[in-house]
Amino acid sequence: MDYKPTIGLEIHVELKTKTKMFCNCLNDPEEKHPNINVCPICMAHPGTLPVINKQAIKSVLAVGKALGGKIAEYSQFDRKNYFYPDLPKGYQISQYKYPLIEGGELNSVKITRIHLEEDTGRLIHEKNKSFVDFNRAGVPLMELVTEPVIGSGKEAKNFCEEFQLILRYLDVSNANMEKGEMRCEVNISLSQISNLKSQILGTKVEIKNLNSFKAVEKSIDFEIKRQTEILKKGGKIIQETRGWDENKELTFSQREKEESHDYRYFPEPDLPVLKISNLKYQISNLPELPNKKRARFKEQYGLKDEQIEILISDKQAADYFEEVISELENKKYTQLAVNYLLTDLQSLMKEKMLSFGEILITPENFAELIQLIGENQITSRTGKDVLRIMIEKGKDPSLIIEEGGLGQINDESAINNIVKQIIEENPLVIEDYKKGKETALQFLVGQGMKKTKGSINPEILKKSLLGFIKVL
User: Fold this and answer.
1) Using alpha carbons only, what angle is made at residue 190 by residues 187 and 196, rounded to the nearest 5 degrees?
2) Which pTM was predicted?
3) Are 114 and 144 in contact (CB under 8 A)?
4) Is residue 374 located within the same domain as residue 245?
């Protein structure tokens, strides 16, 4: 018997605001010292009152607009009641009945809602002791819930990746999964193919706190396999919450799944109803989002799909590329620029562990280097050497070339002299070439490149060598 998976996602995102959701404590995910960014409000001292962070509201509205969701005319916060060591109030201020956003779509996946709540603290376990760090408690936390319409682990992974890109383009969150700034939960059930027409869904299982796109995909694939094997043996699926063991690549049972009524939601009495039509919550025009940028890069620059994806996946890279092209005198070198940017430059950046926001090479200097290579003023080999010096010292490429005497040798008499030296120093290799050994010619070209430190065009050198060898 065959089964069809039905998958829904819940994605939590820490918003990039200056302060926390309901108090003036710093929202600083890089803070290493525990319990520094805390106050009586986020620590739930008696008599304290929360105040809504307007920027957090605007961030959620921007996401809703980007995803084509319906912005609520009014919204309210609720108390979600449960007890856990990292929850200082004994309840979480969240949204239940009246979220900020309803509907929307991304990658053909329908979105149910987007709402706003506060994050919990963080538990730290050491040997036989556990500690609580409340720096994160009260940080604005956006939650997106999809409809249960996803059919595979790959589809879920693609959704999460595209959503992360949108968050970064909107600049509402860094959304680093490894730092817990974006956390995914999966709801998955299996239905018999024969029951699909009657819309009878299987028992839902939740997989909690997945912290990488790889984990999202693999946990779903594993859970589909696990549930299928149970059902085929006549067993029953238990409604529960499961975790993901990244090392063993399997899910494991954590606890029975709570229902919404278990949280005893009721309206937060200390916060007013939000009237979104109020001008203080209005959002300005959105920046260019990934999908539109993809289409424009294709049309405007004629880039290949794989090149576009690499650039789009890092907004800083896409911005840097466009600045380079704007500085490029001759636009026919656009493809040359993207080739050097995505291969040589990024290879050096990886080696030096630098981002596009940290490199010393200005877009103007990078464009100048591309122009010099394109116009054959320096060879490709020299260009790579100059680029390394640029990333290490941030110098102008023309200055590096001048100081190092790296300009391309174009003078015919100079080239002829170099060729004569190569022939005189390698008589046996010349004989090998005459006997039909093609690799001998490549060796001779290599000798010329070595002599000139890569400052001669290898094709010109090869042509000159052949001319001299022919008359020997």
Assistant:
1) 120
2) 0.85
3) yes
4) no
